[in-house]
Amino acid sequence: MLRLTEIKLPLGHAPDALRAAIAKRLRVSPGDILNQTVIRCGHDARKKSAIALIYTVDVAVKDEAAVLARAAGDRNIRLAPDTEYKFIAQAPQGLTERPLVIGAGPCGLFAALVLAQMGFRPIILDRGKVVRERTQDTWGLWRRSVLNPESNVQFGEGGAGTFSDGKLYSQIKDPRFLGRKVLTEFVKAGAPEEILTAAKPHIGTFRLVKMVESLRATIESLGGEYRFQNRVEDIDIAIDSDGTRHVRGVKLANGETIAAKHVVLAVGHSARDTFQMLFKRGVTIEAKAFSIGFRIEHPQSLIDRARFGASKKELGAADYKLVHHAANGRDVYSFCMCPGGTVVAATSEPGRVVTNGMSQYSRNERNANAGIVVGITPADYPGGPLAGIDFQRHWEERAFVAGGENYKAPAQRVGDFLAGRASTELGEVIPSYRPGVTPTDLSSCLPDYAIAAIREALTAFGKQIKGFDMDDAVLTGVETRTSSPIRIQRGDDFQSLNTRGLFPAGEGAGFAGGILSAGVDGIKVAEAVARDMLAATDSKPAAAKLGIRV
User: Fold this and answer.
1) Same domain flag for 415 and 515
2) Are residues 293 and 277 in the same domain?
3) Looking at residue 538, what is its pLDDT?
């Protein structure tokens, strides 16, 4: 099988055009092509009058060796890689120890799934509720301004990614094609097959809900056990005579203790109380960079015109990615861009306002939205490993007050924001945030350096996308949960640097950013847990079973 990349065809091309283009690239007749499979399809819209589709395909062809030899030196023709996931081990018969997975977001979900597929029967602990009940609680905030601190956009089955755009692409290095494993399992769980080929696949919230339920059923069928509304309050760490620290189990908020020698920590970027507990217990944690800013909304039609010249049904709603280096040294960039989506209330703590973006699979809502955020570093919030949490909380509280102290979000017209005056009313762009917005002056909701950088960036972005800085575009505050403010450091064996048996994982631990990368990290951590458990049982035959299919 050969892999061909960079096959360019015009938008709306004839069905047989791809086969003809493959034959031309390989210098064979169409009849020599035995079969073809589209691996990826993206688009190039740099020239709006001639938008092109860009294909990557796997091709079986007669006399493959001769064709490959003839194509020597062509970097766009090579042998197709083996992308099938291979399990590294299988649990031995009679193994009684069960690993714990804390958190049922994308990372915890895939850690649990792979552990279950290898026969290790994980126990999954999540502070929130099953996804359907969680959805009801989330709507309680959006519709009635009633927050459940244990069941919301951040906490519960599926994690924060469930109430998001459902983006399934990442820029991580993935030489083992673990991202393919994630996408394949999603398709098995009910995701549309197009996510396997789209250059920028996404699913959307409603479909994610059903998929999460399906994956839970799979894990349970393989011996995994879910325990919802089980918040981990403490971790039991033993210290040997030589000073070695290792996990012995966890204590739940209900007083129950669970013994475990292997604990996957996949708690997400908003588990602030868990971070504080780990720090108190002496687990190695460091502060890390993250970003803060606002959500911005435009008419989706404006973005479509800027990117495609007009709305293109074949391409769906247009997106964008923008970066600006401000004069004060700050980097400003678009984050989690949601075409045809909505801005959502994403707080997990009382008395604070947090925004995020979400869309459905159709991406057919009136507005486009994205975070416009400013990069900050631990130098901006000195005070120790957890100082970033206090920094986030401060601005979330400011936003709560500016919004009216009822979970409405503070909002401002871009024209007013650039002019430095408070908004008293909004214009053409109707904000999508629920439970609603309060027109105000957003300058009190972020540090002065961030406000200055965003003002400069909006003007610069308006030169890249005509209308981006339109007066009636809406800014909604605040976006603070772009990534975790900490990193729970780990070694090459994926275990905590100073606590054996504790496996920090995913976005909350500082090792991922988004659904796909979190799922990939969950797979890696599951493999590390399996290796360590097999080493502990001295089960060499089990450890030697490579390439096992489930």
Assistant:
1) no
2) no
3) 65
DSSP character string of 106-133: HHHHHHHHHHHHTT---EEEESS--HHH
Which sign does the torsion angle of CA 475, 506, 250, 160 carry?
A: positive
pLDDT at 2: 98
Rg (the chain; Cα; Å): 25
Dihedral (CA of 139, 145, 146, 149) sign: positive
Kindly state whether residues 143 and 256 are assigned to the same domain.
yes
Q: Take residue 441 and report the two structure tokens written for it.
A: 């002056």
**Per the domain annotation, does 88 fall within a domain?**
no
Q: How many residues does the chain have?
A: 550
Enclosing domain of residue 513: 100-285+491-543
Those residues of the chain that have pLDDT short of 50 are 539-550
Which residues, in sequence order, are bridge partners of residue 101?
A: 124, 264
pTM over cut 0.90: yes
**Phi, psi (5° rounding) for residue 320?**
-155, 160
CA–CA separation, 459 vs 426, rounded Å? 20
| Cβ proximity of 172 and 165 under 8 Å | no
Is 550 within a domain? no
For the record, the structure tokens of 74 come out as 């062509």
Phi/psi of residue 336, nearest 5 degrees: 50, 55
- CA distances for 293 relative to 71, 333, 355, angstroms: 49, 10, 10
Residue-wise DSSP of 353-394: --EEEE--TT--SSEEEEEEEEEE-GGGS-SSTTHHHHHHHH
What letters, b where the CB count within 10 A reaches 16 and e where it falls short, cover 515-541?
Answer: bbbbbbbbbbbbbbbbebbbeebebee
Task: Please state the three-class secondary structure of 433-470 as a single string.
Answer: CCCCEEECCHHHCCCHHHHHHHHHHHHHHHHHCCCCCC
Residue with tokens 């909304």: 297
DSSP calls for 59-97: EEETTHHHHHHHTTT-TTEEEPP-----B---PPTT---
Task: Give the CA distances from residue 110 to residues 105, 117, 227, 388, in Å, rounded to whole numbers and listed in that order.
Answer: 9, 10, 16, 28
Q: Are 106 and 236 within one domain?
A: yes
CA quadruple 343, 507, 176, 125: dihedral positive or negative?
Answer: negative
Q: Into how many domains does the chain fold?
A: 3
Return the pLDDT at 421.
98
> H/E element holding 422?
none
Residue that is written with structure tokens 């969680």 in the block:
134
Same domain for 331 and 471? yes
**Rounded Cα gap, residues 130 and 209, in angstroms:** 10
Nearest to 89 by CA among 118, 69, 109, 111: 118
190: left (phi over 0), alpha (psi -120 to 50) or beta: left
Q: How far apart are CA 447 and CA 328, in angstroms?
A: 13
Nearest-angstrom CA–CA distance, 161 and 293: 19
Residues 316 and 403 in one domain: yes
Contact 331, 266 (CB under 8 A): no
CATH number reported for the structural domain that contains residue 106 in this entry: 3.50.50.60
Check if the beta carbon of residue 187 is closer than 8 Å to that of residue 195.
yes
Place of tokens 């102290």: 405
